[in-house]
Design goal:
alpha+beta; 8 strands
Length: about 200
């Protein structure tokens, strides 16, 4: 028999399981809804984002040509894994504008997140930061993730601003890791921790 105090301690050290994590969605902020990605999100617009060289400028997805079938294959593979694939939707116009991913390392209570604001028409309006902050807060507080990580190229100033403005701290660097327009660029890593856990 586990005492109530020990049981409470154990619960605090356990990550919310994937089923219960998915049950938290949809999440809403002032302007956005984050929801579980479904096959209905695999639209012509979505495929076009992935094939748009400007949208994919800092992503290795730019080296791959995408179509409806390849996108469905990716969806089914991530849906079978211990990960979350989310859609970002603008509440006011019910407009689908991007995606987010979460990859868990449950043994360590960590999660690595990524974002794509695929619709260039909404760039520069703060939607990336709003979605990032909503997901980051949920992972740290509701899912009981101990540490959330993310990374981007040093030349991806928009993504760097999102991570820094959401309170993430520098967490390492891989020097001259990838090539952008023939120039070697560093990958910068960032992290956010549960309160009083660092």
């Amino acid at each position: 028999v586990v005492s109530s105090s020990l049981s409470s301690h154990l619960r605090g050290a356990i990550l919310l399981n994937l089923h219960d994590t998915k049950a938290l969605f949809p999440l809403q902020s002032e302007r956005l809804t984050l929801d579980l990605f479904t096959t209905e999100n695999i639209t012509a617009d979505y495929v076009s984002w992935l094939n748009n060289t400007e949208v994919m400028r800092f992503s290795n997805q730019r080296f791959t040509h995408h179509n409806m079938d390849s996108c469905k294959d990716y969806f089914h593979s991530i849906n079978k894994s211990d990960a979350l694939f989310l859609s970002i939707n603008q509440r006011r116009h019910q407009r689908y504008i991007g995606t987010m991913t979460v990859y868990f390392a449950r043994a360590h209570r960590t999660a690595d997140i990524g974002i794509l604001i695929g619709d260039p028409q909404v760039w520069g309006q703060g939607f990336g930061r709003e979605a990032w902050l909503l997901l980051l807060s949920t992972l740290l507080n509701a899912v009981n993730v101990r540490k959330v990580t993310a990374g981007t190229l040093a030349c991806n100033h928009g993504m760097l601003a999102i991570m820094k403005n959401c309170g993430m701290r520098a967490d390492g660097q891989r020097s001259q890791q990838e090539l952008i327009d023939g120039q070697a660029v560093d990958i910068l890593h960032f992290a956010a921790f549960q309160a009083n856990k660092r």
